[in-house]
Amino acid sequence: MKCKLLTVAAAALLLTACGDADADGAPALTARSALPAVATQSVTDYPKDTTASGTVSDIAIETKGSPAPAETEAEPYYEPEPYTEPDPDTDPDPDTDPGSETDPYTDPEPVTSPDPVAPPEPDTEPEPAEVPEPAQTRSKIINVPYIMQRPELPTGCETTALTMLLNHLGVPADKLDIARNYLPKQSFYWKNGQMFGADFRTTFAGDPEDENSYGCYAPCIVTAANSYLQAKGSELRAVNTSGYDLSTLLTTFIDNDIPVLIWISSDGLHETKMTTIWTTPSGEKLQWRAYEHCVVLTGYDYDNGIVYCSDSIVGYAAFNMELLNARFTDFGKQSVCIK
Questions:
Q1: Would you state the pLDDT for residue 2?
Q2: What CATH number has the domain bearing residue 288?
Q3: pLDDT averaged over the chain?
Q4: Inside any domain, residue 175
Q5: Range of the domain at 146
Q6: Domain for residue 112, yes or no?
Q7: Is 95 part of any domain?
Q8: String of DSSP letters for 247-294
Q9: Residue 86's Cα: distance from chain center in Å?
Q10: Which residue, among 208, 232, 176, 226, has the nearest Cα to 339 in the 3D structure?
Q11: pLDDT above 50: residue 53
């Protein structure tokens, strides 16, 4: 009797699970959800005189060796929402949006080295770096004893400066000896109402012992110096270094203990001007530049802007470097050294 009841109950459960098929042959969803919850009851406790009026749904089956399940509330069933195509303008793209719920997992970002942190931009443009001056001595002076030109040579500054330079180099010299015996010179004369005179570039115009004479330029002193040196048997020679800038004379000669004759203006670097015109024996007309003066360049002080000279009019002199350079340029940057 017990086995028969179990067989009938199993058949009833199988029919209930299948339910009614719909038109397409799929089982109806409502047949499963309509099963009533039943209380668990052991088959052994069921009355033996069960009649045909009892239904299969009222019988609970307990499988062998399994505990009776606890009575729980049935979980509600929810109809799935219909599928709609995503809107690319509003819906997030799971392939690009790491926060999309449709694709919660995304590959981790690759680890890269951070870019170096750039320094903050300055509030103002930096000042240009100071360009250092060329490496050179800031000050230098050579001791060249001065000789005064007066009273013997009132216009003989060039001859006197040459005499200073020769004595410094160890070649004994006398200004009057050089002026009278070694210096090329020519006196002025008049002819047909025209004044003739020396080409002062190569010959002294007048006589350095004459108060009313003029002077001479570098080539004339080079000739006088070399004539004297040769007569005294010296191997030294005078060189016309005209055209060198003042700065070049300082670094090339003064820094190497070589004093230099230079042409500037007298009376405290007085402004020059063009004055007397005369004709040379070759027929060339020349004009004299007033305040012409020749000194021995002996040193400098860059920090104070000073140039040192041995001057046949004032003795040891210190001139403003900028002003002396201007006068030196006025006279064509003329210079002579002996080496």
A1: 43
A2: 3.90.70.10
A3: 77
A4: yes
A5: 141-338
A6: no
A7: no
A8: HHHHHHTGGGT--EEEEEEHHHHPPP-EEEEEE-TTS-EEEEETTEEE
A9: 59
A10: 226
A11: no
Cα 90 from chain centroid?
A: 54
Q: Is 334 exposed, middle or buried (CB count within 10 Å of its CB: 0-12, 13-18, 19+)? A: buried
pLDDT at 75 over 50: yes
Q: Kindly report whether the peptide bond that precedes residue 151 is cis, defined as omega within 30 degrees of 0.
A: yes
Q: Edge to edge, what strands does the sheet with 285-289 contain?
A: 189-191, 194-196, 274-279, 285-289
What SS3 state is found at 172?
Answer: coil
In DSSP terms, 297 is beta-bridged to: 260, 309
The whole model's pTM is what?
A: 0.61
The number of domains in the chain is 1
Confidence class for position 317, pLDDT limits 50, 70, 90: very high
Does 209 map to a domain? yes
CB 142 within 8 A of CB 257: yes
DSSP strand E in 15-165: where? 139-141
Kindly state the helix (H) or strand (E) to which residue 13 belongs, with its residue range.
helix 2-18
Amino acid identity of residue 189, one-letter, is Y
pLDDT at residue 49 in the model: 41
Kindly report the three-state secondary structure assignment for every residue of 57-82: HHCCCCCCCCCCCCCCCCCCCCCCCC
State the pLDDT confidence band at 85, using cuts at 50, 70 and 90: low
pLDDT digits (tens, 9 = 90+) for 217-232: 999 999 999 999 999 9
